[in-house]
Write a structure and sequence with these properties.
The complex is a heterodimer of chains A (125) and B (246). With 125 residues, chain A is mainly alpha-helical. Chain A is built from four helices and two strands, in the order H-H-H-H-E-E. In chain A, strands 1-2 form a two-stranded antiparallel sheet. In chain A, helix 2 runs antiparallel to helix 3 and helix 3 packs antiparallel against helix 4. Chain A starts with a helix and ends with a strand. The C terminus of chain A is likely disordered. The longest helix of chain B has 34 residues. The mean pLDDT of chain B is 88. Chain B is mostly helical. The chains are: A mainly alpha (125), B mainly alpha (246).
């Protein structure tokens, strides 16, 4: 019975697995970029969980067509929430990566944004 | 040692989560508590009240438009913070590291991208135009356009592509989401209703359907456009390594 329930709720179990994998990357990986990737994986797990909550029946219908039966349409609210979540996770990723790149440019000499004057034929500051 | 401790801790966490999953209602169960209150109302009256055949789009752009606006504002705020940290890349003067390589990009890559890119843009336009009333969102078309620009930047150089992007167009795209949401919200107040109401008073019948569809479409496009503008600007700033003074 436990195995049947787990197979029936496989979406949620995989979402939990993605969360754990993302958390592992955030804790264990040394490179900051890989930690950010771990955060993105955790986001994906969360979205998968939310979208899975919205499934009704076999999930074949999303759009009202002539002669539809209301019982076959999926729950629309998680889709809206996940879209907002995608926008916000994009924002978080943008900010995290910009901080990482800025820190890398500052900490390694010669990797900042260098100015090159074309008129002088390639002098670098 | 640290790795073993972390793996043990995560295994316990995974076990707790799987135990919680086993207590949940079955996937697709129509009688689950979260589906018995507002959801039947959205499904049965979505088309009349919000005017869109696609019920998730009704919820995203009409019933829960405030959440969407919050998301757009959050994305814009993160973009502003990223621009403060990185600085904008000067158009036509920024070079990425690989641009300086004497090895030219492979002919195959350039040819394939020349063939694929117009098709991708056409698909993005299709998803955006057809999607509002059907199985699509403008957010995805914004992502497709961003992917196209990233492919162009990698295959050809950052210098070339950033030169062809008009700075004013970029600024308009970036602020399109938040600007159009506020404009539509204030338009509703101007017509005597509350903020961000899409069914404006004074319209009825066919006029109301058209007005609702137009406003919903404007909101949808603005989200995709702003996502595209924001991510493109950030990618250019992240890739920039050399600035050429002219």
């Amino acid at each position: 019975m436990t195995a049947d329930k787990l197979v029936a709720n496989i979406n949620y179990a995989v979402a939990a697995l993605l969360l754990v994998i993302g958390l592992y990357a955030v804790i264990i990986k040394g490179s900051v970029i890989k930690k950010v990737m771990g955060l993105i994986i955790m986001n994906s797990g969360t979205f998968l969980f939310l979208v899975g909550l919205g499934l009704i029946g076999s999930g074949e219908k999303r759009v009202v067509t002539p002669g539809f039966r209301a019982a076959t349409l999926i729950n629309p609210v998680p889709h809206a929430l996940v879209l907002v979540g995608i926008m916000l996770s994009t924002g978080i990723t943008i900010l995290a990566l910009s901080l990482v790149v800025r820190q890398a440019r500052r900490s390694e000499p010669g990797t900042g944004v260098t100015n090159r004057s074309e008129a002088k034929g390639g002098d670098e500051q | 040692m640290k790795r073993a401790v972390v793996i043990a801790g995560l295994a316990i966490l995974a076990g707790v989560m799987v135990y919680a999953v086993l207590q949940m209602p079955k996937l697709g169960d129509a009688g689950a508590p979260d589906k018995t209150y507002m959801v039947p109302r959205y499904i049965s009256r979505g088309l009349q009240e919000a005017g869109n055949r696609s019920i998730p789009n009704d919820v995203f752009l009409n019933y829960r438009a405030f959440d969407t606006m919050g998301g757009v504002i959050g994305l814009f705020a993160a973009f502003c913070a990223a621009m403060i940290v990185l600085g904008r890349s000067a158009p036509g003067r920024s070079q990425a590291g690989p641009d300086a390589s004497p090895v030219k990009t492979s002919v195959m890559l350039r040819t394939i991208s020349r063939v694929l890119i117009p098709l991708t843009i056409m698909f993005a336009a299709y998803v955006s135009l057809m999607g509002v009333n059907s199985l699509g969102y403008s957010l995805q078309s914004g992502t497709l356009v961003t992917g196209v620009i990233i492919l162009l930047t990698l295959v050809f150089s950052l210098l070339e592509i950033s030169r062809r992007m008009l700075p004013r167009a970029q600024v308009v795209l970036e602020s399109a989401g938040i600007g159009l949401f506020l404009l539509v919200g204030l338009l509703a107040i101007f017509f005597g209703s509350s903020f961000l109401t899409l069914s404006l008073p004074g319209f009825a019948g066919r006029g109301l359907q058209v007005e609702r569809a137009v406003l919903m479409y404007i909101l949808d496009i603005s989200i995709g456009a702003s996502l595209a503008g924001i991510v493109i600007s950030v990618i250019f700033s992240l890739m920039r390594e050399v600035e050429i003074d002219r």
